[in-house]
Amino acid sequence: MSNLQAFFAHNKKKQDNIKQPISKNFMDEAGQVIEWEFAPISPERDTELKAQCTKRTLITQGKRKGQYNTDFDHFTYQRLLTVESIVFPNLHDRDLQDSYGVYGADELLSKMLTIGEMADAAAAAQTANGYEVNVEDLVEEVKN
């Protein structure tokens, strides 16, 4: 196989989902912590999430009057990426949402997990999506 053929679609390795325990508060009948499952999202969905987290504001004064500032909300993006990456438990399940009295996967995740568990879930989502994760940086981010 030539080096170029290694890049053909049929030779690309499929990325496995990541399974890991996120919260000690959810156990099965045997008392074992249930693992959550994370999958990568598509590049198209990632673009949509980034667009959702980007705000453009018109500058009305000064030398740059008439131009736009572009602000990216990294915290919202990270939260949405985490929600989108979780495949188990199904955060879109109506009964699960009803049990917490919320509507929407994002609200549900916020009710289910502590801040520290959210950081663990965010790290797992980043790993599932191919990002190199530095857990210490995430811990510092949560502290601030």
UniProtKB/TrEMBL annotation:
InterPro entries named among the record's database cross-references: XkdN-like (IPR014986), XkdN-like_sf (IPR038559)
Pfam family, one: Phage_TAC_5
Name of the protein in question: Phage portal protein
Originating organism: Metasolibacillus meyeri
